[in-house]
Structures are given as C-alpha cells and as structure tokens.
Amino acid sequence: MIRSRSHSRAFTLIELLVVIAIIAILAAILFPVFSQAKEAAKKTQCLSNTKQIGTGLYLYVNDYDDSLPMANYPAPPAYVGPPWTVFSFHAGAGVAELAWADIVQPYIKNTKLFKCPSDNSGQALNAGVPVPGEPLSYALNYYFYRQPGGVARFALTGGSLSELTAPASKIFIAESASKANREIVRPDRFDGFERHTKGSNYVHADTHARFHPMPQWWKTIPSATWGNPDLAQNQPCPQWFPWLDSTDEKW
Questions:
Q1: 5, 50, 151, 219: which one has the fewest Cβ atoms less than 10 Å from its Cβ?
Q2: Which H or E element spans position 27?
Q3: How many structural domains is the chain composed of?
Q4: In this structure, how many other beta carbons lie within 10 angstroms of the beta carbon of residue 118?
C-alpha cells in the first residue's frame, strides 16, 4: 500500500508581504472609526457630566430662592476662609477661595464630574507651577456677571432665574480648558468650544444640557467687543445674553 505524505509549505516572502499590506490597509480604515467611536463615547460622557451638573444647579437654585450661584467668592485677602476650594482654581485647593463648582458640589457630591474626559489641556498653572486640586473643565457665562452699562454682579450672584424670560435659551455653563484656570467664559474664550467634533456641551439657565456646534464666526470678532457687554449684545448670539428676550439662538 502506498501512503501519501502531507508536506507543510511555508509562506513565501511575497505572501507575507501581501498579508501585511492587507492588515495595514484594514488598520488604516478601522483606526479612524475606532477613534471616532472613542470620541463619541467621551462626548456622551461629557454630556452626562453636564446633565448631572445641571441637576445639581437645579437643586441649588431651589434652595436659594431662584438665585443662580456666584462665580466665586471674593478673592483673598477679602476672603479669609476656610472653607477653601477643592479645585485647581486660582491658587488651588486648600488655599484659594471657593469656586462656583464648590458651591454646587454639595448637590452633586462628585468632584470628578467637573473634568471632561476629552479635556487634555492639563493642570492649571500658577507662575509655571501646577495648581493643586481637582481639574475644572467647565465655566460660567461671563455675561451673567458683566452686564450692560458696566454693571458687575461677579462677586455677589448670577442673578435670579425668575428674572429671565427665556432661561431654556440662555447659556449658563460652557466647556473650558482645565489649564486655562477660568471660572467665567465668553465666545472669545473658546478653549473647550470645539472639544467634541467641532462643538461642545452646554448647561442652559433652566438647568438642561445639550450639545451645540461652535459657530466659526465667533473667532472673527475682536476680544474687545466680547469684553464689552454693550457691544457684545449686538452680535447675533442672544443665547449668551440673559437680559435679551430673544429665543432665536442662531446656531
């Protein structure tokens, strides 16, 4: 009886190169898809953060007769503390005055929610030295604290929610960069406004959260205009200005 013997054959160099080329092509196709999926998950997590922050804000407002929180307590030496902030804010945890995030923290009980998973800007710096404390990826709307005619309510309150005619169309919390060390933002301080596929998540004054793309024309307006509420209110973005009745967000 003649028995056949099976012979194993090694891959040729050409075959190996073809397989490697196919793997490389598939990787080139799939990696962007995986990256987009990962970023989509981070965007969703950030939106979840802002929704929970909005819930905490809602509870705060109900406890304080419809008053929105101040951006931060007066800075030292006027503010002698404690309590001190637990966030990487101004001089930092255990040293600096309370930030708005500290003020609503008792209603949220989770400091990690104030860090956007896509915020890779790093720790805030003070004279080149990292500021201690939990990172802050969100900030309040500048125009709740700087109003037309030079009216400043920065150190006192964000105003009364009951004064707003269209709170669901007014931005109160926007994304920022943790490294920027800002408690208030406006359209020219757009460190975090393109964080998620050319847009970011916002908490409106009625405490609901939603995603918005960033209008690129914001970048074309001089900072001097955005820094002057009397001039800024003439820009076509009434969602930033609590004193305007318009609900047409134009974005």
A1: 5
A2: helix 13-63
A3: 1
A4: 20
User: Rounded mean pLDDT of the chain?
Assistant: 87
pLDDT tens digit sequence for 12-25: 878 778 888 888 88
- 102 falls within a domain: yes
Pairing mode, strands 138-141 and 184-185 = parallel
Q: Does a structural domain hold residue 176?
A: yes
167: Cβ–Cβ under 8 A, 6 or more apart, which residues?
161, 204, 205, 206
Residue 7 placed within a domain: no
Taking only the tens place, the pLDDT of each residue in 231-244 is 999 999 999 999 99
User: In this structure, which long-range contacts are made by residues 149-156, counting pairs with CB atoms below 8 Å and at least 24 apart in sequence?
Assistant: 149/230, 154/70, 154/71, 154/184, 155/70, 155/72, 155/73, 155/74, 156/70
Determine the 3-state secondary structure of 213 from DSSP. Answer: strand
Per-residue pLDDT, 226: 97
Helix (H) / strand (E) element for 209: namely strand 209-213
Residue numbers of the domain that contains 69? 15-240
The CA distances from residue 166 to 32, 133, 171, 248, 249, in Å, are 40, 35, 10, 10, 11
